[in-house]
Amino acid sequence: MDDTTYIASDKKQLKKILTKVEEFSNITGIRVNAEKSHLICINCKKKIIAKKKNEYVRILGIWISADGKKNYQKTLIEDKTKNICRMVERARITDKGARYIINHVLFPAIEYLLNDIYLNTNMCKKINSICLKMFKHKTGFAQTAINSIFHLKEGYNIFDIENRQLQLHIKNFNDRINRDDLLGESTKIRLRQFQNWIWKNKSIFDEDFIYKIKDNFNLNAMIINKAKEKSVIWKFTNKGNLIVTIPSGGKYTIKELWNDMGYEEQILNRGLRENGIMFVEQIMDLKFKNILSWQHIQTIRPKRGRPPGWYTHINQNKNFATNIIQEKLKEYYIHNLNIFNNLTKKHISTKKLWIAHKDNNELIIGKEHKKGKQEDNKKGMQQMKHYNIITKNLEPTSVLIPCEGCEINIENKNEECIYRIDKGKKDKIEIPVIYSKTSTSSTATRSFKNRIRMNVKDLYTATDLMENYMRNQEDNIMDNLSNTIEEEDIREKHKYQEIQKWIKCEDEDIVILLDIKEKLKHRKQVKVYTDGSLETTLTESIMGFGWVIPEVKNYERLTFRGNIKNFPSSTRAELMAIFTTLIVMPTKSKVIIYTDSTCAIQNMKTIMEKINTREIGIKNKNPILLQMINDIMKENKLKVICHKVKAHSGDKYNEIADSLAKIPGFVKGIKNNIFEGTLITLNYNKRFKHIMSSTKCREIDWDLTFKTKHPSKITSDTTNKEDSSRRSFAIKLLCEELPTLSRRYVHKPNLCNSSSCVLCDELIEEDNMHVFTCKRKGNIDPIKGLNNKFKEILMERIKKEESNIDIKVIWEHINEIDILNYLYEKDYTLSKNYSDLTFFDIIKGFVSSIITTKVIKICKYKKVKAKKIIIDAMEEFQQILKQIWKERYDKVIEWEVNNGITNKDKRIKQTKEKLNTNNQVVKTSNIRKRNNYNINNLKIIEEKEYIQNKQKQKKTNLEFFVNESFLNTNTYKRNNLYKIKIFSDGDMAISS
User: Fold this and answer.
1) What distance in Å separates the CA atoms of residue 77 and residue 99, rounded to the nearest whole number?
2) In the predicted model, is pLDDT for residue 973 greater than 80?
3) Paired residues of 31 in beta bridges
């Protein structure tokens, strides 16, 4: 129970209520928190002190202040993140435990505080950085390790707060926008307010319209904008189109004119928005020859004071502006007439309507007479009071005076002239008239008069055009044929729109769907087989769907297939197949759907149970797609029945649907999910560039590659230290994050003179692969031994699972795999440029699709068993690699101890000081001791000391290389004869 309010008229009644509450609480075991209880007294004599602007009040998970800022919530989120991560860092838990606390303890607490706030990118990076810093420490990764492997679903699957909050807000926003209660209405009001605030002729939901706003200026608008950055857009049905109103009617905006005139300063929306002006057509006369005076321009607020600055700038350069406008608009208006809604819209400048029309070549202007109280026997007629235009020097002015009687008067009174007009008359114009003393013409009258707020000459021209149009309509009866053709075009366009309002696809797909719909239009019952598929690689997931309708006519089968992206799941693909099927179904027909997806059938049942929109969003993972299916079923009055078909059971049409759903030619390259159609560039991580080529990418079995990195599922409950250690090593090996000397030299150059390997006589950089290719002063290529070992492991695993297969047959099949035929010594650096995978990639942990295919063939196409064999073989091989790494690690630790490098030295952050001649690093502590020397002497002394230290270090290294513990290792046993070469520069090399 939460947020309970008790209302009483006096103290006695309140005590009585609280007594009952206490009894009820004792019975049910509910405890009331007295510290959070408040007593509010109405008409109390005590003075109530308001909170300060920067003080916050909490209502559930929302903190509100008078100044409207959300700094306290942001601070609260940051502090909560730091506190939880600090506790996890000190605790003795495995990677799974740390991941569970971040994803399922910390993030729900943060999301609870995000109901009315959207964190910006910098804040999200800060929170992610705090979490990853702790997690990298717990898993033994360096702080410089790439973040993507921790967020990747196939890696450690750590949530990203930016994606989580976007997912949260999109779900909540979609729920609010589809509701019809107060929450839904308030959301729509906010959206309309923002649409008016930006003052654009584009909808805020348009895919290509990205706007810039301040953080938390309008939460709903910010959610829409962020969603569009991730290619998530909303498409509305007819009901949804009423959410926002987009200004329309013109072709050329004031902002576009402003830019074309070459003004550098940005025109403000406020001046245009407050006056309701957006298009150039609103400020031009009927023939685009002149810019209207400010008093003639129709605005939504009274014209007081001087005209706005933007109008003044344009009017001062009206000749230049007019030329630009005429050049731009001649493409849109063939007859060079301004048909904007100035002459047709409902003007609310006066209480009664003013109407102008032409009768017998005479302009007649009238005001609605006695609105609502007319007693006219003639139906469809309206009484108007006649007004005349005052002229000056034979030129009409804007002033209107009542007519004192003329031939159109229907009453006997001479004081006022009343006439009738047909309410359905098409050639009449509503005109703006204001009772004002501000003149808009050359008249000298300064008293209050009824004045026309538009150019009178334009009024005459408009009535002439309408009169000519009506005359032509009566004469040209033969135009009906062309009208019929236009109607057919409209009907064809309407058919396209019927498809486009449900789905966005290519024109050729719409033609296919329209053709199928035409062939099914007379059917009362339709059977259809549907299927969906999901294909996934490292960075991309594509869903395919297809369906087939059995013989319709003349043994013809109707089929359709397509692909969709975003929010990948096999159920979503199955539902998309059902949705596209329903688009082409005839109205009031019975649709029988056969599918092999149990999840799709369960989702369809939720719609057939006729639950409300809110429950669809809560109970299902595909609420938008299900809502669209629900809408099309209601609109077309379809009766849908779903039947389960067993997959791959030999059903003819189910197999056809399955083949249609498969994606042809999948993975031609890794695509960017955010910017569609562009390839991902990895310039910031050159170590992965060689593997991201299209050829190598296709040769990798990504599913098995990532499965071999996890001894157990990262989401499972079982965990131990060994499981965490094996996962950490496998992922480090794959991402080249092992703490080798090359990486230490980059981050701790004060401890290592170079990045060369200390265990071999060649000055080779010790990277991830050199750990396994290092000969340790021998002549035997270690990779050849690892290659043979891997083949033996793979053969043993196959023999264990398939004992009836002869071991010679297995060995022959394995030797047919080119990637495992390591015939001669190869250079790892050069192998990066190869177009195909090599055994070096197997060492890193990549699983080749060729190996997968070959093992499946050996196991007689038992895919599950074959995949288990490969996973077990790779895990056993990685254990051998881990043992090699451990032996190397022990040797390097021993070398560090002999050179006086301690763990404390590794943790200390020291300043790098580069020498002038040899670009080497010396310790800052030694520099500070020699502050009394001048700069030149200091450099000479430092260079001498550096050479002496280097010689001592080489001597120490030599003693280490020839000691008994090193020579008696398994790798270098019986190779204990070494020669020493001393070069002229003092460097030494050891050769066998």
Assistant:
1) 18
2) no
3) none
From 198, 222, 242, give the residue that closes a domain: 242
Any idea how long the chain is? 992
> Which residue, 586, 535, 969, is CA-closest to 776?
969
SS3 979: strand
15: Cβ contacts below 8 Å, ≥ 6 apart: none
pLDDT cut 70: percent of the chain above it: 76
DSSP codes, 225-243: HHHHHTT------TTGGGS
CATH number at residue 636: 3.30.420.10
Range of the domain at 469: 346-474
352/328 same-domain check: no
Is 730 inside a domain boundary? no
Q: Which residue has the tokens 């026309």?
A: 452
Which residue among 340, 365, 400 closes a domain?
Answer: 340
* Predicted confidence band of residue 724 (pLDDT cuts 50, 70, 90): very high
Residue 203 domain-assigned (yes or no)? yes
What gap in Å lies between CA 196 and CA 216, rounded to an integer?
Answer: 17
> Do residue 530 and residue 582 come from a single domain?
yes
Query: From CA 222, how far away is CA 218, in angstroms rounded?
Result: 6
**How many domains are contained in the chain?**
7
In a domain, residue 709? The reply is no
**pLDDT number for residue 753:** 76
Query: Quick check: is 726 in a domain?
Result: no
Q: Which residue has the tokens 């189910």?
A: 654
CB of 658 within 8 A of CB of 595? Answer: no
Quick one: tokens of 270?
């406020």
Let me know how many helices (H) and strands (E) the chain has, helices first: 36, 19
> Distance between terminal CA atoms of the chain?
81
Residue 266: predicted pLDDT: 66
Phi-psi map region of 974: left, alpha, beta (phi>0 left; psi -120 to 50 alpha): left
249 vs 970 pLDDT, higher one: 249
**Residue 816 banded pLDDT, cuts 50, 70, 90:** confident
pLDDT reading at 693 higher than 90:
no
Within this chain, do residues 82 and 136 fall inside the same structural domain, yes or no? yes
What are the residues whose beta carbons fall under 8 Å from the beta carbon of 856, sequence distance 6 or more? Answer: 862, 863, 866
Round the average pLDDT of the chain to a whole number and report it.
77
Whether residue 385 sits in one domain with residue 334: no
Q: Are residues 92 and 192 in the same domain?
A: no
Which residues, 6 or more positions from 914, have their beta carbon under 8 angstroms from its beta carbon? 920, 921
Count of Cβ atoms closer than 10 Å to residue 987 Cβ: 12
Same-domain pairing of 885 and 919: no
- For residues 810 and 943, state if they share a domain: no
How far, in Å, CA of 992 to CA of 975, rounded?
Answer: 8
Tell me: do 747 and 633 sit in the same domain.
no
Q: Which of 116, 85, 114, 99 is nearest to 153 (CA)?
A: 99
